[in-house]
Structures are given as C-alpha cells and as structure tokens.
Amino acid sequence: MLPLIAVPTTAGTGSETTGAAIMDLPKHECKSGIRQRCIKPLLAIVQVVEEFLLAIKMDNYSMPRNVAIYSGFDVLCHALESYTALPYNVRTPRPSRPDLRPLYQGSNPISDVWSLEALRIIGKYFRRSVADNSDEEARQNMLLASTFAGIIGKYFRRSVADSSDEEARQNMLLASTFAGVGFGNAGVHLCHGLSYPISSQGKLYYDKDYPDTKPLIPHGLSVVTTAVADFEFLASSCPERHAQVAMQLGADVSESSNSSYIASKLCDEIRSFMQDFKVPNGLEAMGFQFSDIDKLSTAAVNSVVNIAITPKSTDREIISKIYEKSLKDFVIK
Fold first, then answer.
1. Which residue ranges does the record assign to the Alcohol dehydrogenase iron-type/glycerol dehydrogenase GldA domain (predicted)?
2. Collapsing DSSP states into helix, strand and coil, what is residue 19?
3. What is the pLDDT of residues 305-331, one digit of tens each?
4. CA–CA separation, 89 and 160 (whole Å)
5. Which residue of 134, 170, 279, 310 is most buried, as measured by CB atoms within 10 A?
6. E strands in the chain
7. Residue 324: how many other CB atoms lie within 10 Å
C-alpha cells in the first residue's frame, strides 16, 4: 500500500494512529471493524497550522456541539477499554512468536501509559472543549487524548462547555491521539463490541448536529450507551485497574478496595459526563425497546475480536442483561 498521512479533524477516533477501519453495511444491518497493521498511517499531523486547516477546509474547532460530545465519548471509551482489557500475556491461544500477536493483543505496559494519560486529559478538558468551540487548548488536547487516551478527565467538560476554549480543544485532540496509540495496541472490548448492533439496527434516531437524510446513531453515542452497565459488570475482574481509571477521571476511591464500590465510583463519573452533556438517556431514547434486545444480543456475540479481550467471561445472556440495563442509563433529576 502507498504511505498514508492522516490528519484528524475530530477529537475522537484516534484512527491516525491505528490499523483499524470501520465498515457499515446498512442493507445487512452490519457494522464491524477491519484490523490490519498495513493500514496504519505512516505519519499523523495532529496539531496543524491554521493555514493548512484553512486550505483543506477542515477544523477541529468548527465541530458542532454534539459531534464534539460524541467524539469525546469515543475517546473516553477507547481509554477505559484499552486499560481494562484482558492482559496480553493472559489471553489465549498464545501465538508462537511475538510478531504473530493480533493487532488487538490486550492491555500491556506500552498501551497502559498512553491510555492513562489520555484519561487524565479528558477529565480536565472534555467539558471545556464542548462548551466553547474556540477553546483551542481544550479541543487540541481532546484530539491528542484520542490518540493517547488520560487527558480526558481534565479537559473533556471544558472542551464541550466553551467551543472557543483553545486549551481544552487542543488537549482533547491530544487525548484522542494518545487513546488511539493505547487502544491501537491493546484493543477495545464490550463498549465497542456492543455498540455495532446499536448503530446498525437503529432506525428511528436523528441527531440535530448530523445530516437528517437518514436515521443515524453517532458512533460515540452508541459506544457510551452501554458503558455504565459494562463497567458495573467488569470492575470485579480487576478492581485495581478500574480504580485507577476512576481516579484519572477525578473520582475519590480511597474509602474502599471493594469492587462494587469502585464500579459505582467509576460509573458515577461516566454518568456525570452523560448528564452534563444531556445525551439521550439510554437505548429507549434512541427508539429501542425491550423486545429489540434479543436481536441486538444475537449480533453482539459476533463481535469476537472485542469479546476475546474482555477481562471477564462474557456470553449471550450477560450481553442481554447489559442491553437491558442500558435501556435507561441514569435517573433524570
């Protein structure tokens, strides 16, 4: 393949650092990923000069509010999932040589560094980068967090709250890139694996900041919708790691090492972002009903790459329960 130079225009996918691409086949209600090292970009231009942005008519600062929000949630879940994925030296079957490891090999010492830093950035800049689309610091850091996945806790709210907050948007851009390096090596598990059926089967939802030519559930929204139920289920697999990501987002988990306590603290942080940004409250708000869970679960069990690095044994029954809990994500106050 010819060398690929990638220029990210949202603080979200981190695809400028990964060997993954998404395919969507609406006719077959199928959405999934293609993963191969040969499609990794040779070079990524993350913090680009203004003249270049104007020339290609692409600008992280011009993202509509909901695009910034849902892209930020994609960054958040990239970081959370890659850090809590099944460790690379535990997953089976083990390859005979290191170079035969799959692209999504599980959490490892290299991906851990990137994922935790992305979470830190997100916690600081996410809200800022959305609130003010001229907040350059917040938006750029969210983009970097997408690549590095820990800056999230610091910048997610800021990047949303003020779109003119340059610091917040720059940091979210950074977080996006950091998270991409993290999950590009470790992989992502349940949030993403369960998101594909939501996106492909959603027929009723339209979002005001996306084209209204057809129903569309934005990727980041489909990913975060099951995140609370996912981590309530998964936290007991490795309480220490889940406590670490909760702390990076700003939670105080000092009172107990109990996995249920840690899960509640982490999920409170996720819900807080969702409520602050007024995202649709669960699957029901996107047009799904209890009767749709069977079809969603049937499709989700085919996300074998994601399930393979889920840190806890997961089957169709568990997936169905997660979807059921995700019909509503939080209580409206």
1. 2-46
2. coil
3. 999 999 999 999 999 999 999 999 887
4. 38
5. 170
6. 5-6, 20-25, 30-35, 43-44, 132-135, 151-152, 157-158, 163-165, 175
7. 15
Q: Taking a C-beta distance cutoff of 8 angstroms, is the pair 229, 274 a contact?
A: no
* Domain around 229: 1-333
pTM of structure? 0.87
State the Cα torsion 175-181-187-193 to the nearest 10°.
40
Residue 217 has pLDDT above 90, yes or no: yes
Residue 243: both structure tokens together: 């406590």
Higher pLDDT, 197 or 145: 197
CA distance 151 to 248: 8
The tally of domains found in the chain comes to 1
CATH number of the domain bearing residue 244 = 1.20.1090.10
Within 10 angstroms of residue 34's Cβ, the number of other Cβ atoms is 10
Region 258-262: what's the mean pLDDT?
95
Residue 135, pLDDT above cutoff 80: no
